[in-house]
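Q: Two folds, back to back.
A: First:
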Amino acid sequence: MKKLSLAVFNTQPPHLYYGGVERRIVETAKRLHNNVDTTVYSGTKAGFRKPASVNGVKFVPCFSTDALFPLDNWFFNRTLAGAVDAIKADVYEAHTVSGYGFLKALREQRIKKPFIQTVHGVLADEYMQSLQGTSPTFRTKLANLIMWQFSKIEEETAKNATLIVTVSKYSSEKTVQFYDVDKSKIRVVPNGVDTQRFKPSKGCETLKRQIGLDSKLCVLFVGRLIPRKGLPFLIEAAKRIVKEYSQTMFVVVGNGPLKNNLRAHLEKMNLSGNFVFLGDVQESVLPALYNCADVFALPSIQEGQGIALLEAQATAKPVVAFDVGGVREAVLNKETGILMKPDSRQLAEAIMKLLASWSLREKMGSKGREFVSDNFSWDVCAQRMLQVYREAAGA
């Protein structure tokens, strides 16, 4: 069968960023290099200025800006729109709102090429979730306004796309609900995890000492420091937890616009000594960090699926998360972890229940490893995406 040429659009260069979207792009593309010739077009962020090739996947910089979202995204889409005649492929794929400029240019020039819109967390759903809870700050209000505007762009792109891919059944349902698209053009292809990289291992003592854990209990978080990831819930929960387990350390992996606010909040609550912010870490270090943890916590208030949950379970760690979005598809409640409604008290109780019992942590961790190995892998994700690419191209 003819080898397909695929152009993938993502504002952040996937080989330099390690978010869930970026991980999916890289892991899928490298597994399909025998069937699909993939070129990823990304913004000029993190020093990405020259074309690169990694694992048979080509990465091409397109001018954006190193500024934060949405400026980087706006410049990137503007560049893509201007390059519509130069970027040739059998199929185009955009993640979230990273390719609306290109699709609009295609339509304006009446170029009929298959375009796939991959939706991770439905932005309209995220916006609605953001309106719940306490009174938002000015910064949060501004972020919500931007999110609402981009949800309209995501809706328009989804409606005009040839096919839509969502990472969970939940995201599929919300795409139909909020964007009123034809359900028949949605394909559900969950994210995966590399169970050979993310697996239980010992010998983390040196790393524990380096990040200040030593023999202390560790609660790990991995994700962007943005509102929907729910870090304030974890901080409120930590206030209760350290009263019972004073030596517990909360390790936060990831960066984002809320970092300074979170640090200031911890200072006011006298919890700074119990939190370690590692920022963005090398992809090669992540498996070891998961193995340093006793419990993995992801207090997101909206999540399309949650790759970090899969990685933690693959590493045989029990997980604690809110019962929202696609999370309930990625975690077996009371078997591989504990799910609850968004509430800091319940979050604290779940974490303490696991911290109190080594045997329960071992039992849930073992089941989690089995669950993820049987149901989620990048190989399965890649093969399903290959089917979608071929369907879109009419191959």
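A: Second:
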Amino acid sequence: MTIELLFRGDAYSKVATARVVAIHERGIELDRTIFYPQGGGQVGDTGVLLRENGERVVIADTRKGDGIDGVLHVPVTAMPQPEVGETLTLEIDWERRYKLMRLHTALHVMSCVVVAPVTGGNIAPDKGRLDFDIDMSLLDADKIERETNLLIARGVETETVWITDEELDARPELVKTMSVQPPRGAGRVRLLKIPGIDLQPCGGTHVKNIAEIGGIRVIKIRSEGRRNRRVEIVLA
């Protein structure tokens, strides 16, 4: 079954309607969704599914389901269950999502300041981080913060670009992350383009203009193993 991933076309969609196609122990499947499932280092969305009778099904997490585009909406324990075929109104926790969008986009910008292979990353509502394979002596918090904020201040519009699997294979330099490879098999791969700054595969949610990030602060740099140097940031 093909699921319409509305967040791919418009990360700013806060409300939508969808039909329930399956319910099982792992969660609720819909025919379309604005909820982003955990992946690529970004945590899954939370929010509510509203039934026509007024009941609210609180969604505590969103995870990937079966297939390339499967999405599972995980309700809080003891929530009322909708029925297969029922039409629901979807509402994401927008304040939380927007923080994730700003931090995720900020990490893209920061990855162009710290020029090194990325060995890991995570985006939560309160902070984000990237791990780099780089010598600790080359990481300076004030310099990273200053140069990242200078790039953010350019106010560049972001773009979504699609390329084929074969085109990505021919341009391996586009893949900065060593720990997470972009998904293949669907015939095309989604890239985030920040003109003049960054271009790399990413399926996450991002702001339309990097000025929306508003600036970042580097709160910690530490060693996390032989090849991992972690840089943690928060929104300024």
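Q: And?
A: The first strand starts at residue 4 and ends at 5.
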